[in-house]
Amino acid sequence: MNLHKAKGLEAPVVFLACPCGESDHDATQYIDRSADPAAGYFTISKSIGEFKTEVIAQPLGWGEMNERERAFSNAEKDRLLYVAATRPKQMLVISLYPDQQAKCPWTPLVDGMDLARELDVPAMKLEKKTELTEGPELQNVAEVRKMRLNAISEPTYAVLSVTGQTKAAGDTPEWSAEGRGMAFGSVVHRTIEMLGKGLPESELEDTIRFLADEEGMAEELISEAVRVVRSVIASELWQRSLRARRRLFEVPLMIRKNADRIGGFSDAGSAASEVAAALEGTGSIQYAYVRGIIDFLFEEEDGWVIVDFKTDSVTEEKLQTFIDYYRPQVQVYASELEQTFGFKIKEAGLYFAQLGRWAT
User: Fold this and answer.
1) pLDDT band at 352 (very low <50, low <70, confident <90, very high)
2) Do the Cβ atoms of 242 and 234 come closer than 8 Å?
3) pTM for this structure?
4) Is pLDDT at 271 greater than 90 in this prediction?
5) Closest CA to 207 of 224, 228, 192, 185
6) Which of 36, 55, 75, 360 has minimal Cβ neighbours within 10 Å of its Cβ?
């Protein structure tokens, strides 16, 4: 660290190193600091050989300017020497270059030091160190290290899906062989959301064609997707939502639950116990993040209505099995919105788009 960087710092013991490199030579530039603004003057030199230079031009009155600049430079050296001498709190150790003292910047600090009393050097008693006769059990050290790494690598939380957990706990219904796949459901959901956020109904079919290409849905399903979406926006449920105070689409939820309270899915029935059982025995798991997305909810005068759109290929005969299978999901959403966020939920249900049925 140089002296400029040491300004304002202190230490119990300070060493002044680099006892050489000091030089005394004529100035090559002069700053008139009494002027406002300050004025600068400089000489022009040319190199002679590898180490010498020759002045070929200088300002008028340069001799006096040179002396002033040298005096300023020497005063600056004294100021830096003062900084060096005042950094230590207890001891200052100085490196010297006795053979050529003119090259040592610290020489002025030792003037008169021959009259100072030398420091007392306390007697030192050599400490007998214990001889190492045997090395560590490296195998045991490696095993302990591995155990510690395994312990700190254990996860402290789990990430759960409302949909996945509620579905895992229910009796799976008999799916139709004529199911249209996930791409169909994504296109329908996204189109409903866009209509709810202001998409003109006149652009419905073009939008579905665009989304079908983006989601990878088969072209022959476009007309069915149009029919399903039109049936949704013509439904009494949709008309109710148009008269509502507020409407929200695709609302994400992320809820933190303590592992021992994951059963807080109070209305999810066996789904809660399934989740709790999945976490039981994993001692490192302290809490779980439960995430999900609510398709649609709107606020009426006396509370909120939660809607989960379903695009499954369902018949009237098998409808109840699908209701039983999906109902825990919306019950979880309703419970968490009430308990965690303080929403008043008046109704929560499933809208089966193919049948145009609203089931609560």
Assistant:
1) very high
2) no
3) 0.53
4) no
5) 192
6) 36
